[in-house]
């Protein structure tokens, strides 16, 4: 595995420096506040400087925070943005990965805590739903996976897909000021072009979900449609006409995702999420063509059932489809 960049000491030192709002903080004060040796503080500052943080070392006086790195995916910065959120600790960052899903599932299998995030600047074998490819060039996109240990029954797990889509929709609204559409189960669209795709992979046994790994790919600053994406695609930068700070979007999605998962896990949470999702889902009310292994069905999407399945009125016969049943879902009006 490539070397990871996370260090909790680094985050603590960085937080202290940022919190001092431009004042110089002595090495001694950092040591006392964080219970660290001078050597550890010095090493953390050096490592932050190597990551691109502008931290002044003033002889005798101490250290002063002067600015964040140019890398808008810097994992320490994302963790700082998530200081008050239980998820996103750590954010493990790689410049290049085959797929963020792979180390995420490996870590989940080995017992990693809920909320650990695997983030990459590019992927060489990004995966989409139904075995498709998710082309993941550097700089333009956002590619990350979150480990979740949801307290829901296996037959309710599809709700997690709906929750992730709601979270991304809310995060894009809060960071970019635009409300994207939700295409069941978890595509995020802007004027019928895809902005974000989500892949949730679950490990469960009868009666129990062990973990889920939810991978989120967002077209952030791509000017051109990456090859390999299904249908037409757009990016946040194209929608709002300015470059997007990817780390801020990642932090916002993680924050929203955590809040919605907590809601899903409370008493009648699953039911509430499904009704919330149904009220936001742009697929409902539209004519759809559902492509299954055994053929095609055309009808009007008319709701979401208690398992998160799509209900389709096919000429008077009500059919229910899980995301796993469907090869393609096309809206035709
Ligand atoms: C889809 O719409 O088909 C889902 C695409 C999911 C892409 C993301 S990018 C981060 C994570 N790693 C992957 O390999 N896939 C998901």
Could you describe the 3D structure shown?
With 333 residues, this protein is of the alpha+beta class. The chain has three domains: 8-67, Arc Repressor Mutant, subunit A; 75-280, Bira Bifunctional Protein, Domain 2 (BirA Bifunctional Protein, domain 2); 287-328, Roll (SH3 type barrels), CATH 2.30.30. 32% of the residues lie in helices and 29% in strands. The strands form three sheets. A seven-stranded mixed β-sheet has the order 3-4-5-9-8-7-6, sandwiched between helices. Strands 13-12-11-10-14 form a five-stranded antiparallel β-sheet. Strands 1-2 form a two-stranded antiparallel sheet. Helix 1 (8-19) packs across helix 3 and helix 4 (75-81) crosses helix 8. Biotin (BTN) is lined by residues 99-101, 123, 126-129, 132, 134, 143-145, 197-199, 215-217.
